[in-house]
Write a structure and sequence with these properties.
Helix content is 82%, strand content 0%. It is mostly helical. The radius of gyration is 15 Å and the shape is globular.
Length: 80
């Protein structure tokens, strides 16, 4: 399975999960400190957006949040 196929399958599963299932999956797979970091980072990210930000500009910026998470995971695997 390629990385793209894995990402597509995972996002399909994620979209089908309810909040309890997502929380259980996160608790089993993600360090709580990392969850807190991403929550704070997302809050800071959104608060820094100008109120008039257009959807297109937001679409350009949101992938950076996803990439940060992916790169952190790659680094964890390399260091672990």
């Amino acid at each position: 399975m390629t990385g793209l196929e894995l990402a597509q399958e995972f996002t399909d599963l994620w979209n089908d999960m309810n909040a309890k299932e997502i929380n259980t999956m996160l608790a089993r797979n993600v360090n709580f400190d990392l969850l807190e970091f991403f929550s704070a980072y997302a809050d800071d990210f959104v608060e820094a957006l100008p109120p008039e930000m257009e959807a297109e500009l937001l679409k350009e910026k949101v992938p950076n949040l996803l990439i940060i998470g992916y790169i952190i995971r790659v680094l964890e695997e390399r260091l672990g």
